[in-house]
Amino acid sequence: MTISLSDKPYAPKIVVVGAGLAGLTAAYRLQEKGHDVHVYEARQRPGGRVLTVQIGESLEELGGKNFNDSHSPENSLKLISDLRLDILQKEKPFSPIYATGSSLESFLDIFKRFQETETLWTTLEKFAASSQNLQQVIDSVFKDPDLHFILSSTLRGYEGSDPLRLDPSTIDTLYELFTRFLEIAQNLDENPFPTFQWMTLKGGNAQLPLTLANRLINKVHYEEVLTAVQRNPQNMTLIFNHYHEVKADIILLAIPCSIMEAIDFRDETIPAEQLIRMKSLQYGTNGKILVSSEFPLNKYSFVIHPDTVNWFNDEGQIITFYYGGNAGIFEKKQATFLLDRDLRNLKTVYPTLQVSIDEIHSSQDRQLVSYDRSVFKSWALDPYAKGSYSNRGVGTATWLSEITLRGEKIRKAFRPVQDKLFFAGEHTTLDTLGTLEGAVESGERMARLIHKTLNM
Ligand SMILES: Cc1cc2nc3c(=O)[nH]c(=O)nc-3n(C[C@H](O)[C@H](O)[C@H](O)COP(=O)(O)OP(=O)(O)OC[C@H]3O[C@@H](n4cnc5c(N)ncnc54)[C@H](O)[C@@H]3O)c2cc1C
Hints:
Elements: E1 13-17, H1 21-32, E2 36-40, E3 52-55, E4 58-61, H2 74-82, E5 87-93, E6 97-99, E7 104-106, H3 107-112, H4 120-129, H5 134-141, H6 145-159, H7 171-186, E8 195-201, H8 207-215, E9 220-221, E10 226-231, E11 236-240, E12 244-248, E13 250-253, E14 264-265, H9 272-279, E15 282-283, E16 287-292, E17 303-305, E18 308-312, E19 317-322, H10 332-349, E20 361-362, E21 369-371, E22 374-378, E23 390-391, E24 402-405, E25 408-411, E26 421-423, H11 436-454
Parallel strand pairs: 1-2, 1-13, 2-9, 3-21, 6-17, 10-14, 13-26, 20-22
Antiparallel strand pairs: 3-4, 5-8, 6-7, 10-11, 11-12, 15-23, 16-19, 16-22, 17-18, 18-19, 24-25
Bound molecules: flavin-adenine dinucleotide.
Flavin-adenine dinucleotide is lined by residues 17-23, 40-43, 48-50, 63-66, 69-70, 225-226, 254-256, 259, 286, 288, 379, 384-385, 388-389, 425-426, 434-439.
Protein backbone atom coordinates (compact mmCIF):
# COMPACT_ATOMS: atom_id res chain seq x y z
CA MET A 1 0.00 0.00 0.00
CA THR A 2 1.30 3.47 -0.80
CA ILE A 3 0.92 5.98 2.00
CA SER A 4 0.86 9.59 0.90
CA LEU A 5 2.69 12.12 3.05
CA SER A 6 -0.53 13.61 4.37
CA ASP A 7 -1.60 10.20 5.76
CA LYS A 8 1.52 9.89 7.88
CA PRO A 9 1.19 10.71 11.59
CA TYR A 10 4.00 13.28 11.45
CA ALA A 11 6.05 14.93 8.76
CA PRO A 12 9.60 13.56 8.57
CA LYS A 13 12.18 16.26 9.17
CA ILE A 14 14.60 16.77 6.31
CA VAL A 15 17.87 18.56 6.98
CA VAL A 16 19.90 19.85 4.05
CA VAL A 17 23.52 20.70 4.84
CA GLY A 18 24.98 23.37 2.54
CA ALA A 19 23.23 26.42 1.09
CA GLY A 20 25.00 26.31 -2.27
CA LEU A 21 22.97 25.95 -5.47
CA ALA A 22 22.55 22.18 -4.99
CA GLY A 23 21.31 22.31 -1.40
CA LEU A 24 19.04 25.32 -1.92
CA THR A 25 17.49 23.89 -5.10
CA ALA A 26 16.72 20.61 -3.34
CA ALA A 27 15.32 22.36 -0.25
CA TYR A 28 13.16 24.69 -2.35
CA ARG A 29 11.68 21.83 -4.40
CA LEU A 30 11.09 19.72 -1.27
CA GLN A 31 9.35 22.66 0.40
CA GLU A 32 7.18 23.06 -2.73
CA LYS A 33 6.14 19.43 -2.31
CA GLY A 34 5.06 20.13 1.27
CA HIS A 35 7.99 18.67 3.22
CA ASP A 36 9.40 19.97 6.49
CA VAL A 37 12.87 21.02 5.35
CA HIS A 38 15.64 23.03 7.02
CA VAL A 39 18.99 24.12 5.58
CA TYR A 40 22.15 24.48 7.69
CA GLU A 41 25.01 26.48 6.22
CA ALA A 42 28.54 27.11 7.53
CA ARG A 43 28.88 30.61 6.06
CA GLN A 44 26.90 33.73 6.92
CA ARG A 45 25.54 33.84 3.35
CA PRO A 46 23.93 31.57 0.77
CA GLY A 47 25.53 30.66 -2.58
CA GLY A 48 28.68 28.70 -1.73
CA ARG A 49 30.87 28.83 -4.82
CA VAL A 50 28.59 31.44 -6.39
CA LEU A 51 29.97 34.75 -5.18
CA THR A 52 29.11 37.99 -6.95
CA VAL A 53 31.05 41.20 -6.34
CA GLN A 54 30.71 44.74 -7.57
CA ILE A 55 33.97 46.04 -9.00
CA GLY A 56 34.17 49.51 -10.44
CA GLU A 57 30.95 49.93 -12.37
CA SER A 58 30.21 46.29 -13.01
CA LEU A 59 29.07 43.12 -11.32
CA GLU A 60 31.46 40.20 -11.65
CA GLU A 61 31.70 36.65 -10.43
CA LEU A 62 34.48 35.33 -8.22
CA GLY A 63 32.99 31.84 -8.51
CA GLY A 64 30.64 30.24 -11.05
CA LYS A 65 29.90 32.56 -13.95
CA ASN A 66 28.70 30.96 -17.16
CA PHE A 67 25.59 28.75 -16.99
CA ASN A 68 26.43 27.61 -20.52
CA ASP A 69 29.44 25.64 -19.29
CA SER A 70 27.32 22.50 -19.09
CA HIS A 71 26.10 20.60 -22.15
CA SER A 72 22.60 21.93 -21.75
CA PRO A 73 21.66 24.01 -18.69
CA GLU A 74 18.00 22.99 -18.84
CA ASN A 75 17.54 22.54 -15.07
CA SER A 76 19.04 25.97 -14.37
CA LEU A 77 16.88 27.60 -17.06
CA LYS A 78 13.73 26.06 -15.61
CA LEU A 79 14.63 27.08 -12.04
CA ILE A 80 15.59 30.62 -13.13
CA SER A 81 12.29 30.91 -14.98
CA ASP A 82 10.26 29.51 -12.04
CA LEU A 83 11.85 32.13 -9.79
CA ARG A 84 11.18 34.86 -12.39
CA LEU A 85 14.82 35.91 -12.55
CA ASP A 86 16.29 37.50 -15.67
CA ILE A 87 19.00 35.93 -17.76
CA LEU A 88 21.76 37.96 -19.38
CA GLN A 89 22.72 36.18 -22.57
CA LYS A 90 25.79 37.69 -24.19
CA GLU A 91 27.26 36.87 -27.54
CA LYS A 92 31.02 37.32 -27.20
CA PRO A 93 33.65 37.26 -29.93
CA PHE A 94 35.67 34.08 -29.86
CA SER A 95 39.24 35.08 -30.62
CA PRO A 96 41.61 33.49 -28.12
CA ILE A 97 45.29 34.12 -28.28
CA TYR A 98 48.07 32.24 -26.66
CA ALA A 99 50.82 34.35 -25.14
CA THR A 100 54.07 32.77 -24.09
CA GLY A 101 55.62 36.02 -22.84
CA SER A 102 57.76 36.38 -25.97
CA SER A 103 55.37 35.43 -28.78
CA LEU A 104 51.66 35.68 -29.50
CA GLU A 105 49.71 33.23 -31.58
CA SER A 106 46.09 33.11 -32.48
CA PHE A 107 44.55 29.97 -31.17
CA LEU A 108 42.43 29.52 -34.27
CA ASP A 109 45.39 30.01 -36.64
CA ILE A 110 47.08 27.12 -34.91
CA PHE A 111 44.01 24.94 -35.27
CA LYS A 112 43.75 25.86 -38.96
CA ARG A 113 46.88 23.77 -39.50
CA PHE A 114 45.00 20.58 -38.59
CA GLN A 115 42.40 18.35 -40.07
CA GLU A 116 40.16 16.18 -38.05
CA THR A 117 40.90 12.58 -38.73
CA GLU A 118 37.90 10.33 -38.60
CA THR A 119 39.88 8.03 -36.42
CA LEU A 120 40.65 10.62 -33.72
CA TRP A 121 38.17 9.27 -31.18
CA THR A 122 39.34 5.69 -31.72
CA THR A 123 42.95 6.81 -31.39
CA LEU A 124 42.20 8.65 -28.14
CA GLU A 125 40.38 5.60 -26.78
CA LYS A 126 43.29 3.36 -27.71
CA PHE A 127 45.85 5.56 -25.93
CA ALA A 128 43.52 6.16 -22.96
CA ALA A 129 43.35 2.40 -22.40
CA SER A 130 47.12 2.18 -21.98
CA SER A 131 47.77 5.53 -20.24
CA GLN A 132 48.00 6.39 -16.56
CA ASN A 133 46.67 9.90 -16.95
CA LEU A 134 45.34 12.36 -19.50
CA GLN A 135 48.70 14.05 -20.09
CA GLN A 136 50.10 10.79 -21.43
CA VAL A 137 47.24 10.64 -23.93
CA ILE A 138 47.89 14.24 -25.04
CA ASP A 139 51.64 13.50 -25.34
CA SER A 140 50.98 10.44 -27.49
CA VAL A 141 48.35 11.91 -29.81
CA PHE A 142 49.17 15.62 -30.21
CA LYS A 143 52.80 15.94 -31.28
CA ASP A 144 52.62 19.53 -32.56
CA PRO A 145 54.12 21.68 -29.72
CA ASP A 146 51.63 24.57 -30.12
CA LEU A 147 48.62 22.31 -30.15
CA HIS A 148 50.07 20.32 -27.27
CA PHE A 149 50.47 23.53 -25.23
CA ILE A 150 47.00 24.82 -26.05
CA LEU A 151 45.22 21.59 -25.27
CA SER A 152 47.14 21.03 -22.03
CA SER A 153 46.52 24.62 -20.82
CA THR A 154 42.89 24.73 -21.89
CA LEU A 155 42.19 21.47 -20.12
CA ARG A 156 44.03 22.68 -17.03
CA GLY A 157 41.78 25.76 -17.02
CA TYR A 158 38.61 23.86 -17.78
CA GLU A 159 39.10 21.07 -15.26
CA GLY A 160 41.14 23.03 -12.70
CA SER A 161 43.84 20.35 -12.37
CA ASP A 162 46.88 19.48 -14.42
CA PRO A 163 46.19 16.79 -17.08
CA LEU A 164 48.85 14.73 -15.24
CA ARG A 165 46.31 14.40 -12.43
CA LEU A 166 43.27 13.72 -14.64
CA ASP A 167 41.89 10.29 -15.41
CA PRO A 168 42.42 9.11 -19.02
CA SER A 169 38.59 8.89 -19.29
CA THR A 170 38.66 12.71 -19.52
CA ILE A 171 39.39 12.15 -23.25
CA ASP A 172 35.71 13.04 -23.82
CA THR A 173 36.43 16.64 -22.73
CA LEU A 174 39.68 16.65 -24.71
CA TYR A 175 37.88 15.42 -27.84
CA GLU A 176 35.07 17.92 -27.40
CA LEU A 177 37.46 20.87 -26.98
CA PHE A 178 39.59 19.82 -29.92
CA THR A 179 36.69 19.27 -32.32
CA ARG A 180 34.92 22.47 -31.24
CA PHE A 181 38.02 24.64 -31.82
CA LEU A 182 38.82 22.86 -35.05
CA GLU A 183 35.33 23.39 -36.43
CA ILE A 184 35.47 27.12 -35.63
CA ALA A 185 38.93 27.40 -37.21
CA GLN A 186 37.87 25.54 -40.35
CA ASN A 187 34.80 27.75 -40.79
CA LEU A 188 36.68 31.04 -40.49
CA ASP A 189 36.29 31.79 -44.22
CA GLU A 190 32.48 31.61 -43.98
CA ASN A 191 32.30 32.95 -40.44
CA PRO A 192 35.31 35.25 -39.85
CA PHE A 193 33.96 36.55 -36.51
CA PRO A 194 33.02 33.50 -34.48
CA THR A 195 31.26 34.03 -31.19
CA PHE A 196 30.31 32.08 -28.11
CA GLN A 197 27.50 32.60 -25.65
CA TRP A 198 27.90 33.63 -22.08
CA MET A 199 24.92 33.22 -19.79
CA THR A 200 24.73 34.92 -16.40
CA LEU A 201 21.95 36.48 -14.33
CA LYS A 202 20.86 40.08 -14.30
CA GLY A 203 22.01 41.52 -10.97
CA GLY A 204 24.73 38.84 -10.75
CA ASN A 205 24.55 35.09 -10.25
CA ALA A 206 24.09 35.71 -6.52
CA GLN A 207 20.43 36.46 -7.35
CA LEU A 208 19.76 32.75 -7.72
CA PRO A 209 20.89 31.60 -4.24
CA LEU A 210 19.59 34.81 -2.62
CA THR A 211 16.13 34.29 -4.13
CA LEU A 212 16.04 30.60 -3.21
CA ALA A 213 17.06 31.45 0.37
CA ASN A 214 14.30 34.10 0.50
CA ARG A 215 11.73 31.53 -0.57
CA LEU A 216 12.93 29.31 2.26
CA ILE A 217 12.37 32.08 4.76
CA ASN A 218 13.29 31.14 8.36
CA LYS A 219 14.37 27.71 7.15
CA VAL A 220 17.99 28.57 6.33
CA HIS A 221 20.27 28.63 9.37
CA TYR A 222 23.63 30.33 8.87
CA GLU A 223 27.00 29.96 10.62
CA GLU A 224 26.23 26.32 11.37
CA VAL A 225 29.31 24.24 10.59
CA LEU A 226 28.61 20.52 10.49
CA THR A 227 31.23 18.65 12.52
CA ALA A 228 29.70 15.20 13.11
CA VAL A 229 26.82 12.91 12.12
CA GLN A 230 25.60 10.17 14.39
CA ARG A 231 23.12 7.38 13.78
CA ASN A 232 20.31 6.76 16.32
CA PRO A 233 17.81 3.86 16.35
CA GLN A 234 15.04 6.00 14.81
CA ASN A 235 16.78 8.98 13.24
CA MET A 236 20.12 10.77 12.99
CA THR A 237 21.82 13.56 14.91
CA LEU A 238 23.81 16.30 13.23
CA ILE A 239 26.33 18.04 15.44
CA PHE A 240 27.28 21.55 14.44
CA ASN A 241 29.95 23.88 15.82
CA HIS A 242 29.35 25.01 19.43
CA TYR A 243 27.93 21.49 20.02
CA HIS A 244 24.57 22.49 18.60
CA GLU A 245 22.65 19.25 17.92
CA VAL A 246 19.86 18.80 15.39
CA LYS A 247 17.79 15.64 14.84
CA ALA A 248 16.77 14.61 11.33
CA ASP A 249 14.85 11.76 9.70
CA ILE A 250 16.49 12.44 6.35
CA ILE A 251 19.76 14.24 5.68
CA LEU A 252 20.85 15.65 2.34
CA LEU A 253 24.57 16.44 2.34
CA ALA A 254 25.11 19.15 -0.27
CA ILE A 255 28.68 20.06 0.66
CA PRO A 256 31.84 19.50 -1.41
CA CYS A 257 33.65 16.19 -0.80
CA SER A 258 36.80 18.21 -0.10
CA ILE A 259 35.17 19.21 3.22
CA MET A 260 34.31 15.69 4.35
CA GLU A 261 37.65 15.07 6.04
CA ALA A 262 36.64 17.63 8.68
CA ILE A 263 33.40 15.79 9.54
CA ASP A 264 33.17 12.83 11.91
CA PHE A 265 30.76 10.27 10.39
CA ARG A 266 30.17 8.11 13.47
CA ASP A 267 28.86 4.51 13.54
CA GLU A 268 29.61 4.12 9.80
CA THR A 269 26.85 6.63 8.93
CA ILE A 270 28.56 6.40 5.57
CA PRO A 271 30.05 2.94 4.88
CA ALA A 272 33.84 3.08 5.14
CA GLU A 273 34.56 2.25 1.50
CA GLN A 274 32.05 4.76 0.17
CA LEU A 275 33.45 7.45 2.46
CA ILE A 276 37.00 6.78 1.24
CA ARG A 277 35.82 7.19 -2.36
CA MET A 278 34.08 10.44 -1.58
CA LYS A 279 37.03 11.88 0.32
CA SER A 280 39.40 11.04 -2.52
CA LEU A 281 37.43 12.96 -5.15
CA GLN A 282 39.76 15.49 -6.73
CA TYR A 283 39.14 19.24 -6.78
CA GLY A 284 40.69 21.88 -8.98
CA THR A 285 42.62 24.85 -7.67
CA ASN A 286 41.15 27.67 -9.74
CA GLY A 287 41.07 31.15 -8.30
CA LYS A 288 40.36 34.61 -9.67
CA ILE A 289 41.79 38.09 -9.53
CA LEU A 290 39.54 40.87 -10.83
CA VAL A 291 41.01 44.23 -11.76
CA SER A 292 39.49 47.40 -13.09
CA SER A 293 41.29 48.66 -16.18
CA GLU A 294 41.02 52.01 -17.87
CA PHE A 295 39.36 50.89 -21.08
CA PRO A 296 37.64 47.84 -22.56
CA LEU A 297 40.04 45.58 -24.40
CA ASN A 298 38.18 43.18 -26.55
CA LYS A 299 40.44 42.35 -29.44
CA TYR A 300 41.17 38.92 -28.07
CA SER A 301 38.49 37.20 -26.04
CA PHE A 302 40.96 35.16 -24.02
CA VAL A 303 44.68 35.58 -23.49
CA ILE A 304 46.09 32.24 -22.47
CA HIS A 305 49.30 31.74 -20.51
CA PRO A 306 50.51 28.44 -19.06
CA ASP A 307 48.72 28.83 -15.72
CA THR A 308 46.41 31.77 -16.37
CA VAL A 309 43.74 32.96 -18.71
CA ASN A 310 42.72 36.61 -18.93
CA TRP A 311 39.58 38.02 -20.36
CA PHE A 312 37.71 41.30 -20.24
CA ASN A 313 34.13 42.11 -19.46
CA ASP A 314 32.06 44.75 -21.23
CA GLU A 315 33.03 47.43 -18.73
CA GLY A 316 36.76 46.84 -19.24
CA GLN A 317 37.42 44.81 -16.10
CA ILE A 318 40.28 42.37 -16.45
CA ILE A 319 39.43 38.96 -15.17
CA THR A 320 42.33 36.70 -14.40
CA PHE A 321 41.57 33.07 -13.93
CA TYR A 322 44.32 30.97 -12.39
CA TYR A 323 44.41 27.26 -12.62
CA GLY A 324 46.47 24.22 -11.95
CA GLY A 325 48.70 23.45 -8.97
CA ASN A 326 50.00 26.42 -7.05
CA ALA A 327 48.64 28.91 -9.56
CA GLY A 328 45.28 28.80 -7.80
CA ILE A 329 46.55 28.85 -4.24
CA PHE A 330 47.33 32.40 -3.29
CA GLU A 331 47.13 34.78 -0.41
CA LYS A 332 47.66 38.50 -0.63
CA LYS A 333 51.44 38.41 -1.17
CA GLN A 334 51.28 35.79 -3.94
CA ALA A 335 48.21 37.47 -5.47
CA THR A 336 50.14 40.74 -5.73
CA PHE A 337 53.09 38.91 -7.30
CA LEU A 338 50.87 37.01 -9.77
CA LEU A 339 48.98 40.12 -10.75
CA ASP A 340 52.19 42.01 -11.36
CA ARG A 341 53.53 39.14 -13.51
CA ASP A 342 50.28 38.89 -15.47
CA LEU A 343 49.97 42.59 -16.11
CA ARG A 344 53.49 42.50 -17.58
CA ASN A 345 52.45 39.54 -19.75
CA LEU A 346 49.28 41.31 -20.80
CA LYS A 347 51.29 44.34 -21.88
CA THR A 348 52.97 42.18 -24.51
CA VAL A 349 49.45 41.82 -25.98
CA TYR A 350 48.14 45.31 -25.16
CA PRO A 351 51.16 47.66 -24.91
CA THR A 352 48.99 50.66 -23.98
CA LEU A 353 47.21 48.92 -21.13
CA GLN A 354 46.84 51.19 -18.10
CA VAL A 355 46.10 49.74 -14.71
CA SER A 356 46.60 51.46 -11.40
CA ILE A 357 45.95 49.62 -8.18
CA ASP A 358 47.04 50.73 -4.73
CA GLU A 359 46.23 47.49 -3.03
CA ILE A 360 44.75 44.16 -3.97
CA HIS A 361 41.82 43.18 -1.74
CA SER A 362 41.04 39.74 -0.44
CA SER A 363 37.33 39.12 -0.99
CA GLN A 364 34.92 39.15 1.92
CA ASP A 365 32.62 36.18 2.30
CA ARG A 366 29.44 38.12 1.58
CA GLN A 367 27.39 38.55 -1.59
CA LEU A 368 27.47 41.76 -3.65
CA VAL A 369 30.24 43.58 -1.75
CA SER A 370 31.66 46.51 -3.67
CA TYR A 371 35.41 46.79 -4.29
CA ASP A 372 37.10 49.80 -5.67
CA ARG A 373 39.73 48.51 -8.12
CA SER A 374 40.68 44.95 -7.43
CA VAL A 375 39.72 41.82 -5.54
CA PHE A 376 40.95 38.23 -5.42
CA LYS A 377 39.71 34.88 -4.22
CA SER A 378 41.56 31.61 -3.93
CA TRP A 379 38.97 28.85 -3.60
CA ALA A 380 41.58 26.28 -2.64
CA LEU A 381 42.13 28.26 0.57
CA ASP A 382 38.43 28.76 1.29
CA PRO A 383 37.63 26.69 4.42
CA TYR A 384 34.19 25.61 3.16
CA ALA A 385 35.20 24.80 -0.42
CA LYS A 386 38.85 23.67 -0.22
CA GLY A 387 39.03 23.67 -4.00
CA SER A 388 37.28 25.16 -7.00
CA TYR A 389 35.27 22.28 -8.46
CA SER A 390 35.50 18.54 -8.82
CA ASN A 391 37.03 16.70 -11.74
CA ARG A 392 37.87 13.13 -12.67
CA GLY A 393 41.14 12.39 -10.91
CA VAL A 394 43.22 9.39 -11.90
CA GLY A 395 41.40 6.12 -11.11
CA THR A 396 37.93 7.57 -10.48
CA ALA A 397 36.12 6.39 -13.62
CA THR A 398 34.66 3.17 -12.18
CA TRP A 399 33.13 4.55 -9.05
CA LEU A 400 31.68 7.54 -10.88
CA SER A 401 29.65 5.10 -13.00
CA GLU A 402 25.84 5.22 -12.77
CA ILE A 403 23.23 3.04 -11.07
CA THR A 404 19.43 3.47 -10.99
CA LEU A 405 17.32 3.79 -7.84
CA ARG A 406 13.55 4.33 -7.91
CA GLY A 407 13.77 5.50 -11.48
CA GLU A 408 16.49 8.06 -10.75
CA LYS A 409 20.06 7.67 -11.92
CA ILE A 410 22.81 8.16 -9.35
CA ARG A 411 26.57 7.99 -9.46
CA LYS A 412 27.73 4.87 -7.62
CA ALA A 413 29.91 6.68 -5.09
CA PHE A 414 26.96 8.90 -4.13
CA ARG A 415 24.26 6.29 -3.62
CA PRO A 416 22.04 7.04 -0.59
CA VAL A 417 22.78 5.26 2.68
CA GLN A 418 19.80 3.28 4.02
CA ASP A 419 17.33 5.73 2.51
CA LYS A 420 18.27 8.23 5.22
CA LEU A 421 21.40 9.96 4.00
CA PHE A 422 21.45 11.46 0.49
CA PHE A 423 24.09 13.40 -1.44
CA ALA A 424 23.86 16.38 -3.79
CA GLY A 425 26.32 18.89 -5.25
CA GLU A 426 28.06 19.52 -8.55
CA HIS A 427 30.30 16.52 -7.81
CA THR A 428 27.31 14.14 -7.89
CA THR A 429 25.75 15.40 -11.12
CA LEU A 430 24.86 13.35 -14.17
CA ASP A 431 25.48 16.48 -16.25
CA THR A 432 28.92 18.14 -16.49
CA LEU A 433 30.95 17.90 -13.26
CA GLY A 434 32.00 21.18 -11.69
CA THR A 435 29.25 23.37 -13.14
CA LEU A 436 26.37 25.55 -11.96
CA GLU A 437 24.00 23.35 -13.94
CA GLY A 438 25.57 20.29 -12.32
CA ALA A 439 24.71 21.67 -8.87
CA VAL A 440 21.11 22.54 -9.83
CA GLU A 441 20.58 19.24 -11.66
CA SER A 442 21.74 17.26 -8.62
CA GLY A 443 19.48 19.28 -6.31
CA GLU A 444 16.42 18.70 -8.52
CA ARG A 445 17.14 14.97 -8.82
CA MET A 446 17.72 14.46 -5.09
CA ALA A 447 14.50 16.36 -4.25
CA ARG A 448 12.64 13.91 -6.54
CA LEU A 449 14.38 10.89 -5.04
CA ILE A 450 13.78 11.96 -1.40
CA HIS A 451 10.13 12.69 -2.21
CA LYS A 452 9.70 9.25 -3.83
CA THR A 453 11.46 7.58 -0.90
CA LEU A 454 9.18 9.25 1.65
CA ASN A 455 6.11 8.30 -0.33
CA MET A 456 6.99 4.61 -0.63
C1 LIG B 1 36.57 30.07 -9.74
C2 LIG B 1 35.38 29.28 -10.17
C3 LIG B 1 34.85 29.48 -11.43
C4 LIG B 1 33.74 28.74 -11.85
N1 LIG B 1 33.22 28.99 -13.08
C5 LIG B 1 32.11 28.33 -13.47
C6 LIG B 1 31.47 28.65 -14.69
O1 LIG B 1 31.85 29.62 -15.39
N2 LIG B 1 30.40 27.91 -15.07
C7 LIG B 1 29.91 26.90 -14.30
O2 LIG B 1 28.93 26.26 -14.69
N3 LIG B 1 30.47 26.60 -13.10
C8 LIG B 1 31.54 27.29 -12.67
N4 LIG B 1 32.08 27.04 -11.44
C9 LIG B 1 31.53 25.92 -10.64
C10 LIG B 1 30.26 26.28 -9.87
O3 LIG B 1 30.42 27.51 -9.22
C11 LIG B 1 30.00 25.18 -8.84
O4 LIG B 1 29.96 23.93 -9.52
C12 LIG B 1 28.69 25.32 -8.07
O5 LIG B 1 28.48 26.62 -7.61
C13 LIG B 1 28.73 24.33 -6.90
O6 LIG B 1 27.51 24.35 -6.18
P1 LIG B 1 27.28 23.30 -5.02
O7 LIG B 1 25.99 23.62 -4.40
O8 LIG B 1 27.51 21.93 -5.52
O9 LIG B 1 28.47 23.56 -3.97
P2 LIG B 1 28.79 24.86 -3.11
O10 LIG B 1 28.41 26.07 -3.84
O11 LIG B 1 30.19 24.74 -2.66
O12 LIG B 1 27.81 24.71 -1.86
C14 LIG B 1 28.14 23.94 -0.73
C15 LIG B 1 27.78 24.71 0.52
O13 LIG B 1 28.11 23.90 1.66
C16 LIG B 1 28.63 24.75 2.67
N5 LIG B 1 29.44 23.95 3.58
C17 LIG B 1 30.69 23.46 3.38
N6 LIG B 1 31.09 22.78 4.47
C18 LIG B 1 30.10 22.86 5.38
C19 LIG B 1 29.91 22.36 6.70
N7 LIG B 1 30.86 21.64 7.32
N8 LIG B 1 28.76 22.64 7.34
C20 LIG B 1 27.78 23.36 6.73
N9 LIG B 1 27.88 23.86 5.48
C21 LIG B 1 29.03 23.61 4.82
C22 LIG B 1 29.46 25.76 1.87
O14 LIG B 1 29.70 26.92 2.63
C23 LIG B 1 28.57 26.00 0.67
O15 LIG B 1 27.70 27.08 0.87
C24 LIG B 1 33.17 27.78 -10.98
C25 LIG B 1 33.67 27.61 -9.70
C26 LIG B 1 34.78 28.34 -9.28
C27 LIG B 1 35.29 28.14 -7.89
